[in-house]
Amino acid sequence: MGTIRLKTAIPGPRTRELLERRARYVPQGVSFGTPLFVRRAEGAVLEDVDGNVFIDFAGGIAVVNAGHCPAPVVEAVREQAGKFLHTCFMVVGYESYVDLAEALARVAPGPTPKKVMFVNSGAEAVENGVKIARKATGRQAVVCFDHAFHGRTLLTMTLTGHLMPYKDGFGPFAPEVYRFPYAYCYRCAYGKTHPGCGLYCLGAFEEGLEEKVGGRNVAALVVEPVQGEGGFVVPPPGYLRGLKEICEKYGILFVADEVQTGFGRTGKLFAVEHDGIEPDLLLVAKSIAAGLPLAGVIGKEGIMDAVHKGGLGGTYGGNPLACAAGLKVLEIMQQPGFLARARQVGERIARFCRDLGVRYPLIGDVRALGAMVAVELVKDRRTKEPATAETAVIIQHAYEHGLILLKAGRYGNVLRFLPPLVITDDQLDEALAVLERAVSAVAG
Predict the structure, then answer these.
(1) Is residue 444's pLDDT more than 90?
(2) 98, burial (CB in 10 Å: exposed 0-12, middle 13-18, buried 19+)
(3) What's the pLDDT at 25?
């Protein structure tokens, strides 16, 4: 499949028919970022039902780090589908579940022996992580952060920081959840400036922790090493390590939500590796299986085994097709040069966006860790007023010209870039040219 090729206006005639049917049969609560319907996908490109080909900078929301339909994954799924589709691992086990658990336990950060259990989605991983932490500590309270996103179930919606669109009208929410400001340096909750602040937010967090709930009452701190839906907020060096030290002081389990940051996105297999942190529990999903529904909790052996027999599980958790895919994905990501390529892709995008920022005041901030890159758009760099409408126009201009983008952030004013890490240099050049034209069309 080639790179950008537009045969029709966007959306095309077949797509418009499907959009009409979608409106008729799918509730409006299920949103869509682009008015497109895919026919096939490969590597870093998508072809829609009208034959238009797009470069994908959304990656299924960080799900296809290894690319769309990588051949080894497709073959492994085909082979497994010819053997059996389901037994329920809790009824009749199968080797691929154990193989993948072992593989993840071996690559997880830190020297402590690990165990792994599988579920279907990132939200389920978070739910189970909290269950395990509460059982292991005998405590109930859970700490989370502003701008966080952890899922759409009752507990994970409670942990999520944004009212719209995730929480409005869906309460009451789960009890014993306490929220604190995150290290969002561009919009510091304390009005400080890094690095002169000396990580003021860490001291404020510990003080607030004791004042609001008491560290001795907290089972778990749940944190995204880089906030995803919150706008790709990258904390300053030392912040996550400081949080870990506070957790250790009070006997709180450090739970790293790596649903979006994991599997090579930040240039390391897991984002906590940048800070040399060994989480007590590490939550994974999204790119673990190249698009098949799979998620898991990787945890220190003693913590994972604190739960009684039968306390963890789920009918479809660790589905054999998904486990077969996950094993191949891990093989791909452990190949020489894969993680280095992620860093190269991220550096190229971030450098390009910073160069754009020199010319266009619309670009207020560029944030990046590996290939997890975002641009925050503002109407005025001094006031930092969010350029929400302009962000939407840029996204529309981009997909109308062959590039699929996503927004993020509390105000919907952040462009986030999640290209498959197998994207070629030529595809990257083409995508960034479309991005530049989209920004120029809005910023003038």
Answers:
(1) no
(2) middle
(3) 97
